[in-house]
Design goal:
heterodimer, A: mainly beta, six-stranded mixed beta sheet, four-stranded antiparallel beta sheet, globular, B: mainly beta, 0% helix, 53% strand
Chain lengths: 116, 114
């Protein structure tokens, strides 16, 4: 079974600084998808960024980028120029590329605090 | 706003009762997923529907059931409720179940069982 591990329950960063959230996963599959979702105090789950395992290039979305290390099964999220609105729980999620198995498996989350 | 709607937003009920949670997917989305977020279990996949048919089951209790209707909205029925069923229940949708499709989440229904 696939598992997703987020070893940092809490992180904090000064506003305008850069922070990196860690995620590792365990799978025997060669093709899969990885996601970072953000859950602000409103509890809405918001997609931040996604990465296809077959792509070597790391995904970027504005101030958000990932460091995908397939061999190490590592998928970290870097947030640059942190803003107060980035304060939230961040969940790493895995989805296999198998037909018929499209569920997301989530990590336990990292609570990010932004210090003004 | 993801375009996925869920009603009600909040639900307070007593043990032993039955409730129905409703989800309307984004316009054009055929696949619906239900997830449960609780303090002790984290975010867990419950069940998935595609175009009215059940497609995959996760850690869904026998007391729970779901369906997707011809207009593609979905309902999650929770019966014989226990204190431990208190959680945030999310519905997500995607255009198809294809692996490359992103799942967009609704705002969730917060269930409190007293």
């Amino acid at each position: 079974a696939q598992t997703v591990t987020q070893s940092q329950p809490e992180m904090s960063v000064q506003e305008a600084e850069t922070v990196t959230l860690s995620c590792t996963y365990d799978t025997s599959e060669s093709d899969y998808y990885l996601f970072w979702y953000k859950q602000p105090p409103s509890r809405q789950m918001i997609l931040v960024i996604r990465q296809e395992a077959y792509k070597q290039q790391n995904a970027t979305e504005n101030r958000f980028s990932v460091n995908f290390q397939k061999a190490a099964k590592s998928f970290s999220l870097k947030i640059s120029d942190s803003q107060l609105g980035d304060a939230a729980m961040y969940f790493c999620a895995y989805r296999p590329a198998n037909f018929g198995n499209e569920k997301l498996t989530f990590g336990t989350g990292t609570r990010l605090t932004i210090i003004p | 706003d993801s375009g996925v709607t869920q009603t009600p937003k909040h639900l307070i009920t007593a043990t032993g009762q039955r409730v129905t949670l409703r989800c309307s997917p984004r316009s054009g989305d055929l696949s619906v997923y239900w997830y449960q977020q609780s303090l002790d279990q984290g975010l867990q996949f419950l069940i998935q529907y595609y175009n009215g048919e059940e497609r995959a089951k996760g850690n869904i209790l026998e007391r729970f059931s779901a369906q997707q209707f011809p207009d593609l909205h979905s309902e999650l029925n929770l019966s014989s409720l226990e204190l431990g069923d208190s959680a945030l229940y999310f519905c997500a949708s995607s255009v198809t179940p294809a692996q490359w499709e992103t799942q967009y989440f609704g705002p969730g229904t917060r269930l409190l069982v007293l």
